[in-house]
Amino acid sequence: MTEKTFGERLRTARKTRMLSAAQLAQKVAVSPSYVQKMEAGTRKPTSGMVLALAQALRFSPEVLTGQPYYGEPETEDGVHAVIPELRRVLLCYDSPDDLEAAPRTLPVLASEVDQISALRRDARYAPMGPLLPPLISELTLVAFAARGAEQMRAFWHLARAYRAANSLAHKLGHHDLSNTALERVRWAADRSGDPLMQVTAGYLVAGAMLRQGAYASAARKVRGLREELERLQPERSYTAAALAVDGALVLKLAVVESRRNNREGAAAYLQEAAEIARMAGSKDSLAYETSFGPTNVRIHELHTLVDMGDVEQALARLREWGTDGAEWSPPPTTVGERSSHHHIDVASAKLALADRSGALAELRKARKLAPNHVRFHPSVRDTMAVLLRSEGRPSDDLAAFAKWAGV
């Protein structure tokens, strides 16, 4: 093993707080044997359990997940190399450095933002990262120099660029930088004059709250955003973009309720999201950098079931949605990040039912779709750690995948 596993980090954190396994188990409402299995690396925790453990131990979740990850994957991809420059650019957001040459025109910069957004949606972080700092600097200078509608448009694209920076930092485990990028998204969105961009910025903030276990705050934030959206769209005559944004907000509420282990609440929001998707024409779409439609509703339904530990029902859904006896998978047109996340969830479900070969097969599918995403995803590393411990002598395929992932 190239680094500590989740179980080893959990044991260290528990001993640091001078708690027995039984005492920690009581704090998170599970059995002592469950804690012992997690520490031994034979039981993988859900996302909600990781947050519950972190809160009970008074550590940030990253202490348990071990993010950010370095080692062979980082050496090969070099994805962390852009982080120092990105920190500098985000710090100097309202006083950018001078450039050696005049910034390019807004249409040219907007086209590059489109390219970066596509890379972000497909989780291609390695090629995306180096493009971000210089683009953000140029866009900022253009926005400050422009006036009127052109200035608002420049800030609109700047908000999109900051969103890509937020995604890159979050996926690589630099959560402090991710939160800084979120503040920059809000700053630029407020200056764009576009209410839907402002709602989208709030949606991203709610996601960060959720990742830190602030469930009540996240739910309150999203409900407030929905109220604002309804105020902006008279008599609920929503535009297609507004429907997509509202649908994304509802799916976020479904995930919040799944983290609270509120099955009825999660199911109700999923049903509402499905209805919004039907109102939007039952087609998948991209609006304000957010994918929404029937496919994303299904991906979230499976995610919430896995999150709540109902893995048998999750896999039953895949068989129910599939055709010709095959399990359902997102269509090829689905953005890479969403599709790979789906297969990572399915891998977790199959692992929980001791289908180890099935779990590895799902991770291979995810890797094919979005290798950068898979390589630095905590759930993938936890799944691989359990697979390695479950097999006395790992197969060549399993060992090769583990080496590629840095586990």
What radius of gyration results from the CA coordinates?
A: 21 Å
Strand order of the largest sheet: 1-2
The low-pLDDT segments are: none
| Helix-strand topology string | HHHHHHHHHHHHHHHHEEHHHHHHH
- Largest sheet, described in full? 2 strands, antiparallel
Quote the distance from N terminus to C terminus. Answer: 6 Å
Mean pLDDT, to the nearest integer, reads 93
Number of helices: 23
Briefly characterize the structure.
The protein is 71% helix and 1% strand. By secondary structure, it is an all-alpha fold. Among the domains are: 1-66, Orthogonal Bundle (434 Repressor (Amino-terminal Domain)); 81-193, no CATH class; 336-407, no CATH class.
Walk me through the structure.
A hairpin with a 2-residue loop joins strand 1 and strand 2 (290-292). The protein is 71% helix and 1% strand. The chain is globular, with a radius of gyration of 21 Å. Helix 8 (106-121) runs antiparallel to helix 10, helix 10 packs antiparallel against helix 11 (148-171) and helix 19 packs parallel to helix 22. Among the domains are: 1-66, lambda repressor-like DNA-binding domains (434 Repressor (Amino-terminal Domain)), CATH 1.10.260.40; 81-193, no CATH class; 336-407, no CATH class. It is mainly alpha-helical. The longest helix has 24 residues, at 148-171. The mean pLDDT is 93. The protein is built from 23 helices and 2 strands.
